[in-house]
Each structure stands twice: as structure tokens, then as C-alpha cells.
């Protein structure tokens, strides 16, 4: 069993980190906290968003550990918004589907792909354009990360991972594009306890697995009146 210090061993300032999660759902919160503790800086982060103030990837904004982030939206994070507007962090807003495919392509060995999303907008500026069947497409390059940090539900000792419901989100995609992929899960089971057709991320992608406890915050609570 890895400790969190061992799980994130080797991460250095200036590296690229792919992080799973959507809002606060399925985020590798303890691995993020360990990066915060280690104090590495000048990180490039690949993630759907940047958490919230004081939690998730938002923790890394407090000491300005992130210098660049590829994300699909700013979300409910006032510090992220302020740093972006003040030019303290380089934010490359990326369409959500493109962001997901850039992660998946990196893990699949595909260096780049064409997509119609973003053509004719600032997203497509400076990118190669080709026409297929009368429609314009822009070239998007795949993501490659030094570390991928992922939150799963269950895993076996071989690193085969299962995600729970919508907490799957970007996690299996992020898991494929890291040189070192670290997965924290709620439960580690013995090999054979996970049915082969249940496994979302095969152990071949996973380098380190750790069992943790999780706060599982709700980003925005909505209740029905009456």
C-alpha cells in the first residue's frame, strides 16, 4: 500500500498534470492535497475545471502553483476567475468534448485529430484547417501528462479500476494520458472480485494505487421547495 507521499513521488515543478473530475464530482482530492503539501510550482494542469475556492484544484491556486491550465470552464471559483482576469494564470479554454478527446487520444497513441468544434471561433485561431465532405475541421493535438491523478471507486491490486456512476466523468480519459498514473480509490479488493466486464480502466494504464478516505463535497446544493 502506498502512502500519499510515495504515490506522488517524482512530481516536480514545471510538470504537466492531468486530473480527473467534473466540478467536485470524482476529483482525486487527496492527491491534489498532497501536491499542495509538496509545494511544486509552475504546473500545467489538464482538467475540466479548477475546483472551488479552498478545495480540489482550487487549493493549488492559493500559492500560485498552477501557471497554465487547459479547462472547459471557470466554474464556481472566484480565485480562479480573478487570477485569469489579472493574467496571473494562463487559461486555455477548450471545448469539453475536445478536452476529453485530447486526453483519450494521448492514451491511444494518436498524436492529433480533426474536429469541427471551434472552427471559425477564437478556439481555432492559428490551428491547421482541413475540409472533409464540405465541412471545415481544425487540428487538435493530443494531451500528454507527466502525471495523471485519478479518483476511482474500487480497484484490485493489479490496478484495474471501476468508477461509480457520474464520478466516472473525465477520470478514465485522464488515466490514459499520464506517463505516471496514480489512482486513489475508496476500496481495494482482491484480484477476481471485479468482473472483467465491469472494469473501466485496465491496470495496464495504472502505475500506483492508493486507498483513501474522501470528503465528497457538494459544489452547489439545489433543493426543491415544499
In short:
One of its GO terms (molecular function) is succinyl-CoA:3-oxo-acid CoA-transferase activity. The protein is of the alpha/beta class and 226 residues long.
Folded structure, characterized:
By secondary structure, the protein is an alpha/beta fold. It has one domain (4-110, 143-211): Glutaconate Coenzyme A-transferase. 20% of the residues lie in helices and 27% in strands. The strands form 3 sheets. The protein has a 7-stranded parallel beta sheet with strand order 4-3-2-1-8-11-13. It has a 3-stranded antiparallel beta sheet with strand order 5-7-6. A 3-stranded mixed beta sheet has the order 10-9-12, with no helix packed on it. It starts with a helix and ends in a 15-residue tail after the last strand.
Instruction: Briefly note the structural class of the backbone.
Output: alpha/beta
Number of strands: 13
- Give the spatial strand order of the biggest sheet: 4-3-2-1-8-11-13
Secondary structure: helix percent:
10-25%
Q: What form results from the Cα inertia axes?
A: globular
Q: Quick one: CATH superfamily?
A: Glutaconate Coenzyme A-transferase
CATH C-level: Alpha Beta
Number of domains: 1
Low-confidence spans: none
Mean pLDDT: 95
Helix and strand sequence:
HEHEHEHEHEEEEEEHEEE
Write the CATH architecture name: 3-Layer(aba) Sandwich
Assembly context of the chains: single chain
Amino acid at each position: 500500500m502506498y502512502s500519499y507521499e510515495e504515490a506522488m513521488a517524482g512530481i516536480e515543478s514545471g510538470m504537466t498534470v492531468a486530473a480527473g473530475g467534473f466540478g467536485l464530482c470524482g476529483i482525486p482530492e487527496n492527491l491534489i492535497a498532497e501536491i499542495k503539501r509538496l509545494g511544486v510550482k509552475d504546473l500545467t494542469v489538464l482538467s475540466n475545471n479548477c475546483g472551488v475556492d479552498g478545495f480540489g484544484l482550487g487549493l493549488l491556486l492559493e500559492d500560485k502553483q498552477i501557471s497554465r491550465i487547459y479547462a472547459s470552464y471557470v466554474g464556481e471559483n472566484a480565485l480562479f476567475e480573478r487570477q485569469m482576469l489579472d493574467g496571473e494564470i494562463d487559461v486555455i479554454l477548450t471545448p469539453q468534448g475536445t478536452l476529453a478527446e485530447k486526453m483519450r487520444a494521448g492514451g491511444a497513441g494518436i498524436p492529433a485529430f480533426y474536429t469541427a468544434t471551434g472552427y471559425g471561433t477564437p478556439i481555432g485561431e492559428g490551428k491547421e484547417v482541413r475540409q472533409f465532405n464540405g465541412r471545415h475541421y481544425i487540428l487538435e493535438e493530443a494531451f500528454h501528462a507527466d502525471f495523471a491523478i485519478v479518483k476511482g471507486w474500487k480497484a484490485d491490486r493489479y490496478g484495474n479500476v471501476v468508477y461509480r456512476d457520474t464520478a466516472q466523468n473525465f477520470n478514465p480519459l485522464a488515466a490514459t494520458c499520464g506517463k505516471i498514473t496514480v489512482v486513489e480509490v475508496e476500496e481495494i479488493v482482491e484480484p477476481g472480485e471485479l468482473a472483467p466486464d465491469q472494469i473501466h480502466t485496465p491496470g495496464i494504464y495504472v502505475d500506483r494505487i492508493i486507498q483513501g478516505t474522501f470528503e465528497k463535497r457538494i459544489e452547489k446544493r439545489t433543493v426543491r421547495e415544499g
